Amino acid sequence: MDGSDIESNLPPRYTTRLFPAYRFVPGQKPHPRRDPAGHSYGLPEPQPDLATLAPEKWRDCELYLYGIDLYNHGYWWECHEELEAIWHRVQSNHVQSEFLKGIIQIAAANLRRFMNSQVQSETPGASLATKALEHLEIVPATYMGVDVDQFRDDVLWYFGGKSDTPAIIRLQFD
């Protein structure tokens, strides 16, 4: 699926995998892996298909595409889990490692902002988002299907208070 058949105002979907039963927000729902009531309790850790880990094979990497789906639909903790499984395997590729680390940390910043949205002093998660964007500085303008420059701008827009909507990752399949 390339997301082109989805209305433009909805986040795109790139896989048909079902989402977890709930979005994990610490303190609000059972921990997905540690709590017997968690949505992923007892399930194996995500394992990437080693044949699809090269950056140019991103279209075939189900774990990557699902991680993007999770990110776009506000499953930020779950996105972190999926993409971290890939990140652990690709650390020898510095650019790919930094790219994944950036997205993982932006997901964490989004979760932090969501959890602390009542804080008035500063935008919650903004400092983590700033650190996350530093990882994307070495990444080419388009990487693994992502318009990195646009994504970076959208993250800055969101954490700068100019948008109420977290940045969406729209993969480019052409």
Describe the secondary structure blueprint for this structure.
Layout: H1 62-72, H2 76-89, H3 94-115, H4 126-136, E1 142-143, E2 146-147, H5 148-159
Antiparallel strand pairs: 1-2
Helix pairs in contact: 1-2, 2-3, 3-4, 4-5
Outline:
By secondary structure, the protein is mostly helical.
Fold and architecture overview:
- This protein is mostly helical and 174 residues long.
- It has a domain at 55-159: Orthogonal Bundle (Hyaluronidase domain-like).
- The chain is built from 5 helices and 2 strands.
- It has helices at residues 62-72, 76-89, 94-115, 126-136, 148-159; strands at residues 142-143, 146-147.
- A two-stranded antiparallel sheet has the order 1-2.
- Strand 1 (142-143) and strand 2 (146-147) form a beta hairpin.
- It starts with 61 loop residues before the first helix and ends in a 15-residue tail after the last helix.
- The model is unreliable at 1-7 (pLDDT under 50).
CATH fold-level topology of the domain at 55-159:
Hyaluronidase domain-like
What is the tally of helical segments?
5
The CATH class of the domain at 55-159:
Mainly Alpha
Low-confidence stretches: 1-7
SSE string, helices as H and strands as E: HHHHEEH
Output the structural class: mainly alpha
Proportion in helices: 40-55%
Largest sheet strand order: 1-2
Cα-to-Cα separation, first versus last residue? 13 Å
Strand content: under 5%
Shape verdict:
globular
The CATH homologous superfamily of the domain at 55-159 is termed: TTHA0068-like
